[in-house]
Amino acid sequence: MDLLNLKRITDYEWELPKQEDMRVPGMIYGNRQIIEHLKEDVRLGKDWNALKQIANVACLPGIQKASIALSDVHPGYGFPIGGVGAFDEEEGVITMGGIGFDINCSVTSLKTSLKEEDIRKKAKPLLDSLFKTVPAGLGSTGKVRLNLHQIDEVLIGGAEWAIENGYGIEEDLEYIEENGRVKDANPENVSEKAKQRQFKEIGTLGSGNHYLEVQYVAEIYDQEAAEVYDLKKGDVLVSFHCGSRALGHQIGTDYLKILAETTKKYGIKIRDRELVCAPINSEEGQKYFSAVCCGINCAFANHEVLTHLVRKGFKEVFPDEELPKFYSIGHNTCKKEYHEVDGKKKLLYVHRKGSTRAFGPGREEIPKKYRKIGQPVLVGGTMGTCSFILRGTEKGMNATFGSAIHGAGRAMSRKKAKHQYRGDRLLKELENKGIYVRGHSMAGIAEEAPGAYKDIVNVVECMDKSGIAKKVAMLKPIINIKG
Length: 483
Description:
Helix content is 33%, strand content 26%. The chain has helices at residues 32-43, 50-57, 116-121, 123-133, 148-157, 159-164, 192-197, 223-229, 245-265, 283-315, 394-400, 414-420, 423-432, 442-447, 456-466, and strands at residues 7-10, 13-16, 26-29, 67-74, 81-88, 93-95, 105-115, 211-220, 235-242, 277-279, 325-341, 344-357, 376-379, 387-392, 403-405, 436-439, 469-482.
């Protein structure tokens, strides 16, 4: 298969033409710099490369329109991270490679009434308070303790369960994707081992690229959207990034074995064993989908408990702050959604692997306050650079099934980052720039060095210029807590 013969549609849209077993073309949204980086991996003979994965996904049964890669694209498990695949309900498949292990890893942003200078005056006490209040780190456990019956309630109720149990407030639900709960969750299809691993992890941040950050609005690009979102230059937000923790990982591990058997059972041809799958309308496919929905609800509940804890930690330093929810949006999901294909409205199972929902204006799924301008898209950056708020567009609805980037995307492996950077030096360098960082391990800080990631400004610019999602605001960090 010729992976290097990409067709330039525009400066920010590239097609990998259909060939061999590909049922649809590949579509990549990025500039020449991103495309050349993808090609270089192929030229170097790297078997694990994103272009090959884009082509492999395009070969799966029932895939619609294209195998899509966004500007933060890099190799992942089966699907590239930054990948999107939408599958027909009748002919399509559901694959763990298109969802990942950290089901519904999400970004939540809370709004404050404060300005940048207010935070800088009390940055260290606030850092101390949040670090003490919000459990983080590898294997971290929270104060919420559950049994098997209670965890089933979490997997069904999502954020609603958290609010009913005194964590978060009813008004939050309007500003959570899916209003904080998906309907197709069935805890019977989640193993007891997965449930037990989550007993002590609700309300925890975890490790890796998960973070809690106090940020300020450094730039406004779209004044109309900023007014709808109630954002002004200098405003302070609090954002955090995490997912379904051990439960989501165990669901992925459990179903890999089941889906491997199912792929053989139904004679499904795949080009990569990491793309084991099941027909959507099969018993196995529906069981896996319901387990994924449990993972989605688990992450919703986790985020709502974390929202409660962040508010608690913040109030110790700023007693009058309420921190209303700005928005909460996930990646690493499979969702049932209606989209237009060949002029007809179809129910599709949309896999978003390291990509996030980015619905355009008018969709009923968007909070009423934001509906006329499009859904906020929360794009996490690194602890030393910046993050962005984008908005969904009509073009994105048509081209990428209402999907956009979720972050910068890694440019360097964790192993290489640990060799190249030292955590203690990074902390000093960042503090000299006015960014206060605290982590639960120096190795974890090194892994998350800003230099280990792609240039987020370039990645976001590609989304904006392609029209898939438009820039609204840039956020810069003041405080960052790493797991």
